[in-house]
Design goal:
This protein has one domain: IL-4 antagonist (De novo design) like domain (Four Helix Bundle (Hemerythrin (Met), subunit A), Up-down Bundle), CATH 1.20.120.660. It has five helices and no strands. Helix 1 packs antiparallel against helix 2 and helix 2 packs antiparallel against helix 3. The longest helix has about 45 residues.
């Protein structure tokens, strides 16, 4: 095999690897975000109804899920985004623990925004490519 064909094969295999990694990344974010948002929705409903015990259990579960997934997310996205999610998650936990409904709802809304925003910017769309 001459060097031109070898370079072509290596380039083709690299392209396939990049495409497969991209598909894995998109599926990972969509699946994880769906789980996070479902848990966040349960937490928000519990806070709205001032069911602080359920709210705290839900936010702890969300935190546990986040802690198990954030290292994988960090491979693909900006660390500032990871830090923002972690910060607002911890802030939300504290507001819920101290039963501050207004601050908890505001913090949960920002947390939801970050989670959905990351999932959206990682999707394969023309505006994300350009």
């Amino acid at each position: 095999m001459n060097s031109g064909k070898l370079v072509l094969v290596i380039n083709f295999l690299t392209l396939i690897l990049i495409i497969l990694t991209g598909i894995f990344e998109i599926n990972l974010f969509e699946k994880d975000t769906k789980i996070f948002v479902e848990n966040l929705t349960k937490t928000k409903k519990a806070v709205e109804s001032t069911n602080w015990q359920d709210a705290y259990e839900n936010i702890k579960e969300l935190n546990k899920n986040w802690e198990s997934k954030k290292q994988m997310w960090a491979v693909f996205i900006n660390h500032n985004e990871i830090d923002n999610i972690t910060m607002y998650l911890r802030q939300s936990m504290e507001f819920i623990k101290h039963q501050d409904k207004t601050q908890a709802m505001a913090s949960l809304a920002i947390l939801e925004h970050y989670l959905i925003h990351i999932s959206e910017i990682e999707k394969l769309k023309i505006e994300n490519i350009i």
